[in-house]
Structure formats: structure tokens, C-alpha cells
Task: inverse folding
């Protein structure tokens, strides 16, 4: 008796990318969550429309990926790489012990949601190697195409320094028209990924955004502390009394 096997068509990339993620904001946020989880000190999102519509993400001093991690983790759908030993365990990053905030296995398909193709340059930490590969998501569109039929070439080079670890991501031929209003809305949404300056620990994760084409200089994304609070206290001095009023953020005073 001949045993048959499941086969996965290239449509899975669309199902896990464009159709699973609700919008471009969610997709780009997920990529930045992965930068946070790679213990990067910062990530810069550059909307570069000078020649073609491209989003470049530069992750600084992150873990990067070795050749084996690209092959055995990034290119494996449904990997157990970030799975905690117990379901109740909190996932922590390797070096800085940050609480991980990325959704398992979603980041690579967030790239599919945003553009027709992507180029990644991985610079693994404590190494002078550099690995470059490209993915053309349109190649997976054929009805008879299975994911294992699309070859991905990984090029290995030597970089000048081991200190510039992390990822460089270039999302090309964007599916959406990112105008200035959309970029501004996005910068407001990603404030939830970083802490206000007053609460940042040492080696905190920082975000930057820029778009020269839209007149947006490189700007650090920093949420204001009072906008992250649940309550505010207002004190008034009246003769020999101090009156303190508690106000729920955005609502009327609730107590004195």
C-alpha cells in the first residue's frame, strides 16, 4: 500500500501574510516586535520613495541570524524555535532577558503582507559573516506551485566588523500607497512598542522613523509619559489647604 502525504502549495504564504494580518500597520509592527525580541538596541524604519517605493528597516546591534538559523528557523514554516518549554512560561530574549512581544512565526509573512519581494541581510552577533538572500513572493502564486519548489539562494560574505550585528530588511514593490498621512498614523501606533524616557531601563529598545520623500526627518519615537497613565493627580493650593483631585485619564474628576 502506497502512503500519500500532505503537500503545501505556495498559497500558504498569502494565507499567513496578506489574509492573516489585518492591515499594513499590524504587519510592520510585527516586524519591529521581532527586532525587539532580537535584543536590538534600536530599529529605524525608512520609507524610501526616491527611486521605487521601498521600506527599509535597519536593526542595530541585534542578534542577527546565522546560516543555520536562516535555514532551520526562518525558512521553516511552523518552527518550534521560539516555543517555550512550558505553555505557562514567559518567553525571554537570550541576552537582555526582555519579555518577548512578537507572535511566533508571523514576522516572515508580515514581509509578504507589505511587499511583493524582500531582501534581507543578516549580520549575526559575534561573527564577521554576512548572509544575504531575497524572496520573490510572486513566485509562490502559481496554482500548481508548492513551497518546496521555490529555491532561495543564501549568499555568504565577510563584513568589516563584528560590532554591526543585526538585520537589514528591504521590502520592495509595496502593495499599499504609503502617503504622509499613513506614515504619520503609523508612527503614532508604534509608540506602544517603546517606553517613555522616564521609564526606560538600561539598553532599552528604541525606534526611529524617517521619510525624506515626505519631508519627515529621522525622528525618535518616544511616547509621552502622561499619555500612558491610567490616572492623573491635580493639586491646588488654596489659602492653608492643598486640594488633590484624581482624574481618570480623559475623563472627569472622580474624587477629591
Result:
Amino acid at each position: 500500500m502506497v502512503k500519500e502525504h500532505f503537500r503545501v502549495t505556495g498559497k500558504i504564504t498569502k494565507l499567513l501574510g496578506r489574509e492573516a494580518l489585518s492591515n499594513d500597520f499590524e504587519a510592520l509592527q510585527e516586524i519591529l516586535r521581532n527586532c525587539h525580541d532580537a535584543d536590538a538596541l534600536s530599529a529605524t524604519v525608512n520609507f524610501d520613495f526616491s527611486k521605487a517605493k521601498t521600506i527599509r528597516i535597519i536593526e542595530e546591534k541585534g542578534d542577527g541570524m546565522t546560516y543555520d538559523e536562516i535555514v532551520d528557523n526562518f525558512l521553516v514554516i511552523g518552527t518550534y524555535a521560539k516555543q517555550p518549554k512550558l505553555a505557562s512560561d514567559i518567553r525571554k530574549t537570550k541576552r537582555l532577558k526582555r519579555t518577548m512581544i512578537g507572535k511566533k512565526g508571523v514576522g516572515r509573512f508580515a514581509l509578504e503582507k507589505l511587499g511583493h519581494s524582500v531582501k534581507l541581510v543578516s549580520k549575526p552577533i559575534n561573527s564577521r559573516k554576512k548572509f544575504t538572500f531575497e524572496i520573490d513572493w510572486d513566485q509562490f502564486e502559481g496554482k500548481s506551485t508548492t513551497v518546496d519548489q521555490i529555491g532561495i539562494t543564501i549568499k555568504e560574505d565577510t563584513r568589516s566588523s563584528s560590532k554591526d550585528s543585526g538585520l537589514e530588511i528591504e521590502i520592495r514593490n509595496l502593495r499599499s500607497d504609503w502617503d504622509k498621512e499613513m506614515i504619520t498614523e503609523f508612527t503614532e501606533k508604534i509608540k506602544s512598542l517603546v517606553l517613555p524616557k522616564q521609564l526606560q531601563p538600561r539598553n532599552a529598545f528604541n525606534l526611529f522613523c524617517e521619510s525624506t520623500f515626505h519631508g519627515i526627518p529621522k525622528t525618535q519615537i518616544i511616547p509621552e509619559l502622561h499619555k500612558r497613565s491610567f490616572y492623573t493627580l491635580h493639586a491646588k493650593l488654596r489659602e492653608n489647604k492643598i486640594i488633590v483631585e484624581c482624574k481618570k485619564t480623559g475623563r472627569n474628576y472622580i474624587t477629591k
Q: What stands out?
A: DSSP finds five helices and eleven strands in the chain. The radius of gyration is 22 Å. The CA atoms of residues 10 and 147 lie 5 Å apart.
